[in-house]
Amino acid sequence: MFQPLLMNTNRLLAALLLLSVCHFAAAADIVAVTVTSNKSSDQTAVPVTFGQIFKQGDVPAGTGIAARLTDGTILPLQVDRKATHDDGSLRHAILTTKLDIAGTASKVVILSQYSDSAAGSSFSLSDLLSRGFDATVNLDLDGVRYRASAADFLANRSPKRWLSGALVSEWIVGGSLTRADNGNAHPHLAAYFHVRAYSLDRVRVDVVIENNWTFELNPTAFTYDININVGSSSYSVNNLTQHHHTRWHRVLWWGTDPALLVTHDGEYLQASKAVPNYQKGLSPSESYLNSMTQSVDPMDNADLRTYFPDVGYGSQIGPLPQWDATYVVSGDRRALRSVLANASAGGAYSVHYRDKSTGYPVSLETYPRLSLNGWRDEVPPESDVRNPLREDGAHQPSIGFLAYLTTGDYFYLEEIQFWANRNMLFNNPNGRQDEKGIFTGENRNQVWSIRSLAQAAYITPDDHPMKQYFIDRVINNIMDRTNKWANPSANNLGGIQDFDWARRGQYSPWQNDWFVWVFGYLVELGFDEATTMRDWLSQWPTGRMGQADDEFCFLYAATYNYKRGGIGYSDTTGYPNSYYPNFRVLYEANFPDAASQPCDPNGVMTGNPSRPTSYYSNMQPGLAIAVDAGVADYSVHWARFVGGTKPDYNDNPIWAVVPRSASGTTPRPSIDLSITPSRMSSAGTVSINWRALNANSCTASGGWSGSKVVSPSRAESFEVSETTTFSLTCTGDGGRASSSVTVRIGEAPAQDTTPPSGSDAGSTTDSTGAGTSGSSAGATDSSEASSTAVDGNGAGGAGALGDSTGLLLLMLLAGRVCRRDTCMKRLAKRAWPGYGLAGLFVL
To answer: What element of type H or E holds 138?
Structure first.
């Protein structure tokens, strides 16, 4: 009489198991990153930390992140949340995991969403200090030795906790260098230690040397010899001159440096809107990638201009500098190293003003009359030893932003903040309206200053004391421009020209185009207050591309300079009498001969459209924003712009910005990839079948190589003697996609050779980087489970079931009803690959 009850109980438990495991199966993959080792030797359970940006809504409030390899191995993961979107979803986090990696291999780590769990912790600071950890700086200046000790600072000060969890802890501490003989502090020189401890025997230390105090008297340059020691690692440099308000850093390891580099999915970076949306399918040449700057010495400016105000094209000028844009479109390791080198080089310029009383960049809220531009009410003047590296706002790149997004390193966060603050400090207090931080000057000075300020506001951690400081000043600048220009009396062109010494009564149309882009970027970063100004500005590129057939011939849209009408540069009210009333009058006034003739729809635009550095190219990001704003029409204005001669942006994608929301959006590539058989007991022959859609080119890697035919369906056979993975990457106008399949040697062929769709299927990554199920059998063997996922600050978590013990217990009980079928195999492998072995065990 108890048998039916037992059977019903078993079915109930099996149903609970299905529901519980489906919780994991339904977890959405978000994005993938690639971890590459620069060591020749194999490493086991090696730690790696990186920064990751997230699209709004991808990681909602109350959810967490899990990590796994493409073979299904679950990785531990510590998530240090830094910034959130307005809806509470995660914007930026610093992630730490551990994985096994062979030699100079690469491994793809897939991040997915799952239910949040409790926080954990690793070891304490006292544990680290009692182990004997220290990092020291010895600096010899004018016959006097100055020193600093991380252990002393950590033991006697209140360090900032930057990372905290089961996998890693990081403390940030610093202060003035002191004399070795009497302990007196140097008035200007200071050392900071960013101490990232993975274990008591493996600690990464970023040592920062600064000459940055804002209010110390007689700021000047110092020439010194320096030696930094961290365990058995050291770094020395002699006769180094460090100018006032500069900084530099060097990373050393206590214990073994794992030498890992994490590269990101550029498509996902763009989709997050943290960076512009670039033309799809760009592929930098090997010669260019090999030429990129890979490292930087202290006080070196890398690829940054020695003198920013120099006129003409510069690789640093644009929404993102050339090295940043190249990394976004390529994901190449050489480009990432160039991003980091140039972000570090930003420290060599005299823009770093730290308030000794707070430890943070000096605040206009505290010192509203502070200025670096001739007023100097409260900043002591520097000596006559001037820094040969000179910066400005009009030619200023984004510095530190992408480096911090991708690494999570505190040094780069502060570079963003120092540069953004410099631009406000440089304006005189009256012009910037004291603490409001309003930017003035040329359009380009305002554009790049607003860009850098917005990036600081967007990415500064939510709990940082200066988060609201930067947000408020972004909004101050938005409202100042909106009230001044996009008002009921505004001109009909979307034209804005606040200041131009050289060209009275004229436009620099390309600078106006940059204004369109930056206000569109503000909206993309979440500043909805910028929408009105963005839409009003969008008239400018739209009208020049022929808003109406009889108004303005698009062939003349990208000219270097226009007469704007009006009475000259001193009238900055934006009222109609300062500007021509419409684009037809503007066209006739500037191009009277052309205006008397029909506009040739097949003509070549002015502005050198074949060059990636031309005024044509400079116009492109602004027009892309106008399309996204709904002011310009994709099929009309954008089609005209890209319909003729176009630049080759492959090696220089600075201006290759395209609309996000175009009616003619090109579909992303997709790949069907399968392998037969997927398991063999010994060496033999496998057949690979593939087909790619919406792709222009495909490249094979792993067990095969070379270019592959895109379509129609193709097949190749290969002899294999060991477990081998075959990967295929395809690129098209709509992006990039990758897929992999694996044949495993030494395993009996699967009994069920026709698994349901998605079971044991090929692991495919689309251009967003998220893993999706493939169509082939045998691509992922999920029976090699490893460690438990770790959330948030490091605690192991198993979502709805609580932990692995509960899941295994349910599998054992449910096995009574599953044991005569293949359902348990499929369930275990499809639900959570990490428990596949346990699922097979209970059969």
So the answer is: strand 135-141
Q: Are residues 435 and 302 in the same domain?
A: yes
Q: Which residue range is the domain that position 737 belongs to?
A: 670-777
Q: 3-state class of 390 per DSSP?
A: strand
pLDDT at 500: 52
The number of folded domains in the chain is 5
- CATH code, domain carrying 723: 2.60.40
- Do 750 and 626 lie in one domain? The reply is no
Tokens of 146: 């100055």
**pLDDT on residue 789:** 35
**Which residues of the chain have a pLDDT value below 50?**
1-7, 9, 12-26, 118, 501-502, 567-576, 663-665, 750-843
Per-residue 3-state assignment (H helix, E strand, C coil) for 731-797: EECCEEEEEEEEEEECCCCCCCCCCCCCCCEEEEECCCCCEEEEEEECCCCCCCCCCCCEECCCEEC
DSSP characters for 265-329? -HHHHHHTTSS--BPTT----HHHHHHS-----TT--TTS-SBTT--S--TT-SSS-HHHHHHHH
The secondary structure element, H or E, covering residue 48 is strand 43-53
The tokens describing 301, both together, are 């400016």
416 and 526: one domain? no
* pTM given for the model: 0.79
- The answer to whether residues 322 and 655 touch, using CB atoms and an 8 Å cutoff, is no
Same domain, 335 and 469: yes
Measure the CA–CA gap between 798 and 254, rounded to whole angstroms: 33
